Amino acid sequence: MHWRQVLLLLLLVLIASYVRAATLATVTVKAQPLRDEWIADAVIESTRQTVVSAQTSGRITALYVKAGDQVAAGQRLLSIDQRTADEQLAASRAQFAAASAERDVAARDLARTRTLFDKQYVSQAALDRAQARYRAAAEAASARQAEVRAALVQAGLHNIAAPYAGTVASVDVELGATAMPGAPLLTLYSPHTLRAVATVPQSQLTGVQSDAAVRVEIPDLPAGARWQTATSVEILPVADPLSHSVQVRLPLPAAANQARPGMFARAYFPVGQARLGLMVPLTAVVRRTEVTAVYVVAPGGQVTLRQVRLGEVHGDQVEILAGIAAGEQVALDPTAAARQ
User: In this protein, which residues make up the domain named Multidrug resistance protein MdtA-like barrel-sandwich hybrid (predicted)?
Assistant: First the structure.
């Protein structure tokens, strides 16, 4: 009876081990098309970044935003003292009212003169003088009206509004400071239209293809947004005469809106011909001192730690150069596999 109990115990252990292996999440190693990549440093910038400057002079009386604020198109950003502009607008309106009154008087005089001319009580010269006075008064009124419109525009320059929806990158003035024409007030950018700008040596430029799928890594972003694929490749037509390099612009998809202008990035330009490589998730790789390995799950449920040699990282996948073959099962959770 003793040997039967031992056999039953071994059978139960094997069944438990098989059940645990069956519930272990695995991935099948497959050969995938890969291309070698050339890496270039890049920087994130916005395709819409604006330095808002003053168009008139005056003391800054109000600041409505601060760095980091989200603003809507047309939202007021700051105000400049406009008392002088308001007085000029009031004077222009008064002058326009006076000119309009002169025009109305000249129009009535012209009407009376025409009536008298029709009855032959006044000469043609008198009618011509009345017509000339009316035209002069009408033109003067039009000029005064134009001055009113110009004064309105000038008054509007004292209220600075956002040209588009975006994020305030910096505010370069303080409340009470004096704004001067052309002086920067604040910087605004759109977080929804970002791009990576890579600096590529002219010796490597021949390998950059405008229709290639260029991957962009932004190391400081969370894992889910760290890797992006550029929507297009724009190679600038001029080179820097000092560094002998060319800038390559890589527009990013909307999913990269967590990035900020000025962030460091890396651009991975595919080169050469496509080849097949064995890929596994990075999370499946175990690193113990100088050993790099993965847990391989056999068809019978046995889990073994097998040393592998890694190649290049492609997003959340890494190439396996040696140690496993296509079709084998690799455990996705090394911690759970180690308990088998």
Answer: 49-183
